[in-house]
Request: fold
Amino acid sequence: MNNNTFVHKYIRSLISKDDITADMTAGNGNDTFLLAGLSKKVYAFDISKEAINNTLERIRGYDNVVLINDSHANVEKYIKEKVRLFIFNLGYLPGSDRSSITSADTTLEAFKKAYELLEENGYIVITFYLKQKGGLDEYYLLTDYINKNRFQITETYRQDKPFSPVTFIIRKISQAR
Ligand SMILES: C[S@@+](CC[C@H](N)C(=O)[O-])C[C@H]1O[C@@H](n2cnc3c(N)ncnc32)[C@H](O)[C@@H]1O
Reply:
């Protein structure tokens, strides 16, 4: 099972139709599509216009998705309510020229802001691609921050191969602040 399959299976048990969710890297819209079916409203960010267009195509028929063509580091400009679950599926847009790729500092900034916007017992689902450009730096920067702040990782998923992608499910609990 790859990481995306794991994430899609796992998050079904974490959200309901009353929940607000956010896809911080919309890409080709696969995660946004899943969230649109499971939650009340989905905010979906991507800096790439191509990704936003792909996501728009993917979610045709849903009217509960707010598409935002901006960096996830500006999340607080767009989300003014508490969120049950954020997904960060990092790296580059599959099928593209790989020029639009997440970067460690920006991802950390977005992660911090997302944690602030998260409701108690809400979740951040984050997948790192260690083999992609800057992927290891991103992984080390974020895991260092997560560990220093004693955030609760409720689940870790990776396949048993060197440098395979890593997914963390992080739950916001009051003691973690
Ligand atoms: C691995 S893809 C996401 C896949 C997507 N979730 C899906 O289901 O198809 C990563 C995406 O992150 C986007 N991205 C890179 N930097 C970003 C940023 N600062 N803010 C928002 N999106 C960004 C890229 O353009 C790319 O589309």
